[in-house]
Specification:
By secondary structure, the chain is of the alpha/beta class. 30% of the residues lie in helices and 24% in strands. It is elongated.
């Protein structure tokens, strides 16, 4: 029996709200479920397990309807879904009354329920995170330990758990084939020989390093044990820190070309945190805010410092506050310390801006 396991697609995420490309990113995240189903079809999977976080919030009926149409377009693939902390099931959640396609099973309750898929000889123990209860690994282990006359060869658990050790310990003594875990930790983890967490399907913020995607698995129809478990990167973008060093000769146009070249080399669809360092010409305006409307830059950190010509400024302002400030900082020392340099940069910048 072939299956795929994914988690935390986070449809509807607004982490990039306020940027010029926020809507494009929202559509990319929503398109993740289609890409996952296409991967399942290509792999020959009969089952898709989603261990919570399909949505970034309690989904609306409209969002549920759009996602259900994607599942319905793959009628030969069963999908079993639970909710996590982001898309928690509340008493008033539309998901409680939503009618899914025949190939979709949404375990909306907080207690472990048993879902039997007789046509693929598979049973799944599943429970969502709700506002009233949240089953732990020990509850799943207990449910899996109960005997049923119609027990299947392939036995799976589908749950949310942020404690890897607790999950590994709870399922160690069971005859489960595979435990599909979702958690708030973004990265993929092989927790034990039968317990796996795919992590976030896409990176959500800067710092979500490493690969993101889904797990493909093959379980023996004869023994019910895994034959192959493989992590497959699927993320459409990466969050990339980009350091740019400049000097006093760097112009606004040169900086733009430098950023364009570096982003082009790393991938224009990726999301960047831009950090500028070095000394700059104080008369050069880089217009950094304009860059965010052209490129996918979520944050700009400007650590550049203006390189003033102190002798020229002192000659132009020998008897006013600017000249007095320069003489006090420089004093009798030929070399300024790092602290003195920063004081000079910020002080002169403030004085020159308020000169009149």
């Amino acid at each position: 029996m072939r299956f795929i396991h994914l988690s935390d697609i986070r449809i509807g995420s607004s982490t990039e709200s306020g940027t010029g490309w926020a809507e494009t990113r929202r559509k990319e995240l929503e398109g993740g479920i289609l890409r996952a189903m296409q991967e399942a079809e290509s792999f020959g999977a009969r089952l898709v397990l989603i261990s919570g976080g399909l949505f970034s919030h309690v989904p609306t009926t409209g969002e549920l309807d759009r996602v259900s149409r994607v599942f319905a377009s793959f009628p030969d693939i069963r999908a079993v879904i639970i909710a996590g902390q982001t898309d928690i099931v509340k008493r008033s959640s539309p998901v409680r009354s939503f009618v899914w396609p025949e190939n979709v099973f949404f375990a909306a309750g907080g207690r472990v329920e048993r879902i039997v898929l007789r046509d693929i000889d598979t049973e799944i123990f599943a429970a969502s995170v709700t506002d009233t209860e949240n089953a732990g690994p020990e509850d799943f282990a207990a449910a899996a330990g109960e005997k049923h006359e119609d027990s299947c060869t392939v036995r799976l658990a589908l749950l949310r758990c942020n404690d890897d050790e607790a999950a590994a310990e709870a399922f160690a003594g069971t005859d489960l084939s595979y435990a599909a875990v979702g958690s708030d930790i973004s990265g993929y983890r092989s927790i034990s020989a039968k317990v796996y967490c795919p992590g976030f399907f896409e990176p959500e913020k800067m710092g979500d390093s490493g690969s993101h995607g889904l797990i493909r698995g093959i379980i023996s129809d004869r023994t019910g044990m895994p034959e192959s478990i493989e992590f497959v990167p699927m993320a459409s973008v990466s969050y990339v820190p980009l350091l740019i060093r400049i000097n006093v000769k760097t112009t606004a146009e040169e900086l733009k070309m430098l950023i364009e070249r570096e982003i082009g080399r790393r991938g224009s669809s990726n999301i960047y945190r831009l950090k500028l360092t070095g000394n700059r010409n104080p008369e050069e305006d880089f217009d950094l805010d304009r860059l965010t409307s052209v490129y996918r830059i979520s944050e700009i950190i400007d650590e550049t410092e203006p390189e003033y010509d102190y002798r020229r400024l002192f000659a132009e302002h020998p008897q006013d506050m600017i000249g007095f400030y320069i003489s006090r900082i420089v004093s009798d020392s030929n070399e300024m310390s790092r602290v003195e340099k920063r004081a000079m940069y910020y002080g002169l910048d403030a004085l020159l801006k308020t000169e009149e």
